[in-house]
Design a protein that fits this description.
It is a single chain. It is built from 9 helices and 2 strands, in the order ββααααααααα. It is an all-alpha fold. The chain has 2 domains: 37 residues, no CATH class; 138 residues, no CATH class. A two-stranded antiparallel sheet has the order 1-2. The longest helix has 19 residues.
């Protein structure tokens, strides 16, 4: 049987997320990027536990580049960071316009500005100029509403700090020639556990703060 993802190679791996078999190449390249893999997936667990040396070196380089923007986040803010990035990873712009780092930065900045304004007691919707960034900002806002509806207490300032970290990462990492460098970097990092990056991103003296966010 051919892999339903690429329709070229033989389907050799059972995929619990898709409930079908796919080829090892699609499993390895689309894991947690295009496929929403559960933590119980044995292939995901094996990749996390024993990544190839070249992958480990890439992960270490990616984390080092991301650290300046996330090192000051608390544990709860790290959780928000990855929740917001789950929306960014799934976002598909309408039409032919691709999602690039500047869109991510603008969307995160606009939602953060709206939350910062609300924290001061003023209701004002800061909207980004581009259509792509505006739609992504709407999706981030919807996710934040869902988190709160599930019972998590997420303060406006806390969410704004996290979004400013995403903005900083997207602007600084995406300052090179590649317009989607930050998105590519985060796509790789999303394939390792959020907890691993959380521990690498905190300083040794920092202790977890607050309760765990309820995931929707």
């Amino acid at each position: 049987m051919l892999c339903p993802r690429c329709e070229q190679r033989k389907a050799r791996r059972d995929c619990p997320a898709l409930r079908t078999s796919i080829c090892p190449v699609c499993c390895g390249t689309q894991r947690l990027v295009e496929i929403d893999c559960p933590d119980s997936c044995p292939h995901l667990s094996a990749a996390r536990a024993h990544p190839p040396a070249v992958v480990r070196r890439q992960q270490e380089a990616d984390v080092a580049r991301l650290l300046p923007s996330i090192s000051s986040l608390t544990e709860r803010q790290h959780q928000l960071f990855f929740l917001f990035h789950s929306v960014i990873a799934r976002h598909r712009p309408d039409g032919l316009a691709p999602l690039v780092d500047s869109d991510v930065a603008d969307a995160a900045a606009s939602v953060a500005a709206t939350l910062e304004t609300a924290a001061r007691g003023v209701i004002y919707d800061h909207a980004p100029q581009s259509t792509v960034a505006r739609k992504l900002a709407d999706e981030i806002t919807v996710l934040l509403q869902q988190i709160r509806q599930e019972g998590a207490s997420v303060h406006d300032r806390e969410a704004a700090i996290t979004l400013r970290a995403i903005e900083q990462g997207a602007r600084n990492t995406g300052a090179s020639a590649a317009p989607d460098e930050y998105l590519v970097l985060m796509g790789r990092l999303l394939q390792i556990s959020a907890g691993q990056l959380n521990r690498r991103g905190r300083t040794e003296n920092e202790t977890p703060q607050g309760s765990t966010i309820i995931l929707p």
